[in-house]
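re: that chain from earlier
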Amino acid sequence: MADDASSLTSVTLLRPGATCWRVEQADRLALFIDNDEAFDALKAILLSARKSIWILAWVFDPLTRLDPDRVRKSRDPAHVDRIGLLLRRQAALNPALDVRILVWDMPFPIAASQLFGPHRGQVFFTGSRVKYHLDNTLPASACHHQKVVVVDGSVALVSGGDIGVDRWDTTQHLDNDPRRRLPTGHHYPARHEVAALVDGKAAEALGDLFIARWNRSTGEALERSEKPEETPWPDYLVPDLRNAPVGVCRTQPAWKSDPEINESMLMHLASIRSAKRLIYLENQYLTSPIIVEALADRLAEPDGPEVVTVGPAQSPSYFDQMTMDSARTSAINRLREVDAHGRFSAFSARTPKGGAIIVHSKVTIIDDRLLRLGSANLNNRSIGLDTECDIAFEGTDETSRAAIRAFLGRLIGHFLDHETEHVLETYDRLGGLAATINELDRKGGAPRRLAPVPIKALTGVQQFIADWSLGDAISPIDAWRPWGRRKRLKRELHRLMDGHQSPLLPGHLQD
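^ sequence. v structure.
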């Protein structure tokens, strides 16, 4: 259901220095659902690179296949399937090409869970012209979680997903897809990701982010990349939007001389407060009490917006199942508790045969007014402890509002195996997104593709973990002091609000 333009507030949500770092124009912006689409675009821009390839990553594995349908042996980089080989060959064929990869220097247990991909990169690129660096410039317990690729300083991919061996999937999310194979030959589960490609000044800003990170980590000062005559935008790719002001939103913990940055959190609080009809949250983790209470505030309003969340049925690791899944269940229980007007719905994504999909995307859609995506989850870590990078754009005219609305339809349609137009027509007819999902997800006894999250009571241990946010610190100072975490959550927000436009923030956080 589209919002009437006159009903939209004139207050922009993209406020540099508060809800975002910078607002820069993207001449073109394309949105991708799942890494089959995103990796196609990534491969195209890497092959078109003439001046520079700069990569920021949480995990990077040189054995990652960008196109599992085309596994060939060739001396032509266009036929190379694994990203490490592609980058090494591109750098060798073009001595003027500056290739740099900056990856979080993750602890051994986490590296083991990622098949030691980041450390494999160190060995893989030794002796090549690719500059590969593991970044440990951050507080203990924090991680570098930004996921950005900038090519020639003029086009950039921003994603919620990593360049890893178990990240590729199609929008069909087939059960036992033979293309979803690890280098070991083992099958990995279906996975859902979202990414975007931008060019213009927006891409240049993301290049500046890389320059700052590289300098902080290595001490080496970089200049902006020289731009080629032609932007390496993929020839086949039709943008979803043109001439769009894009906000770059970051999270960065205070450490040494680095200031604390909480733009992603403030963007979420402002956008939740501004919603009129719909708050759609597609996220791996919905656990932060700050975000949950902001949503609870809106659900308590008699005429507030509908809140719909889509996430995984459970986390893939046992540690996350104990910590983050307990906190997510507690958050969903809290929102159901305050949902006196019946406007909250939580769904988990499933394959055609009912198997679990790892929902790893991080998408926020507010009415047809704002779309935000990137690396930040809706947990404490992503709003205060880790480094994050999101982008967001607003529906300021009919074209941009239509783009946001169409992407919502694409997302829901890809889960339910319905065309975008059918989803949006049903949404307009029924007036609610949850009602739309429930009507379209009836297939004569077949498993639900977006299954309602069942009501679940936590055990005493699980509730204790959730109440104290164990495994989910909000800042370096409380990472090792969980007993002070609950008080700090509210205290930190009051401090972060100071100087910002408080009318856009939730009422319960303004006292």
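The first helix runs from residue 35 to 48.
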